[in-house]
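Our collaborator T.R. sent over the components below with a one-line note: 'Predict the complex.' Nothing else. No constraints on interfaces, no templates requested, no preferences about which chain binds where. So this is a plain run: every listed entity goes in together, and whatever single assembly comes back becomes the starting point for the next discussion.
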Amino acid sequence: MFKKILLAEDFQGENQGIAETLREKLILEELQNELYCDKAFTRLKVALKNTVPYELLITDLFFEKDHVDRKLKSGSELIKAARALQPSLKIIVHSMENNPIHVNSLFKEHKINGYVCKGRKGMLELVKAVKEVYHNRTYVSPQLNLTAANNVVELDDFDRAILRELANGLTKKEVSEKFKQEKITPNSESTIDKRISRLYDEYEAKNTTNLLFKLAKEGKI
Amino acid sequence: MFKKILLAEDFQGENQGIAETLREKLILEELQNELYCDKAFTRLKVALKNTVPYELLITDLFFEKDHVDRKLKSGSELIKAARALQPSLKIIVHSMENNPIHVNSLFKEHKINGYVCKGRKGMLELVKAVKEVYHNRTYVSPQLNLTAANNVVELDDFDRAILRELANGLTKKEVSEKFKQEKITPNSESTIDKRISRLYDEYEAKNTTNLLFKLAKEGKI
DNA sequence: AAGTCCCTTACAGATTTCTGTAAGGGATTG
DNA sequence: CAATCCCTTACAGAAATCTGTAAGGGACTT
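Returned assembly:
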């Protein structure tokens, strides 16, 4: 079994519960837990330097903001940094996120090794995932049904930038002006119009209000 | 200290973490934990019948749906049922919800005794909350700032009817026509305009898109 | 090099949104 | 009863939204 595991999870209750269960169900030599991404990353770096690197990282995706300044703001940033630092590291994500698209992109972009949804069976699955990953297999929570991944078009950064401003009540003209000021391209009213019209098609929305409402309800923005 | 505590929380990891911490930090005689609202409620009923009722209920608000059929679908339904069954029961809510409006309504409508936000300090706060509630005081996570509670006006049925149609992408003219067909009064475009304008003021929204987005995010529609 | 595809941009016209003014009516109050 | 308040409605003008056409340019293919 893994000799050295790092757990990053900002909810104190969850954090302790996971650590407790893993220690109980698996024979572990070393399991550290951290409440902040930055601290977790520092631990990875130090361990690597001291030639006793971590073998497995278990991390959440969302880390709540508080008064502590931070460079790494989310689990995916931590994962990205960790992958760059130590490509051999095994990574299991343990999160509430249950959108197959997002989960899929974690496997594709960051080569994570396992994904477990938080929930009633979360702990049982996590133990299973650790075992699977230890044997160089991947694990995905069955509820995700990742194979039958849905074909909904993803929003890109530009889409999201526009939608964010519209959600805040700016007009398209104002969005265009703001983008010009902030040197975001493209930025013509016309292009912004076209982008939104395309989203109407993709999400079967009738107007901006309808589009933003739908996306908000789906948690996409 | 409380002699008999019931914990309802559907995330296995969190559930175990909380139970562990409470047993460690407080001198408890009896602490049971349940993953389902219905089971938790049954426990309350049985205990009351056997004349050794629970003294404190700690519950989450959101309980994920799974294959198991259920009557009580959320923490607030559990709280309502529990209050009706056993008015003397102390209740602490432990949830991610951080909207002061919703939290406030729990105190007003269900007379809960404490509210703790999940998060990095969640466990420390929860222990503190249990102690406070034991001494017949209430506890609210400081981050909520509930005293400066917002005075936001509630939506009435007519507001909601308009907003629902706008969210579905209808224009104001179409909403007016629909209301006329369905004999909903008032129904002139003008009145609908006025209602929405009033909501702009009340919710500090700049336009319909902004208003709907805000309300969707606050979970009001 | 020519053809094709797609993105960016400009522009224009019809429709919708938003705001303000104003009139009428019901309910309440002094 | 008159004064007042608030809701409903009509109307009108400025601004914004939405849709379509069209031109230019970069990337990619044949």
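Summary for T.R.: Chain B touches chain A through 40 residues (CB under 8 Å).
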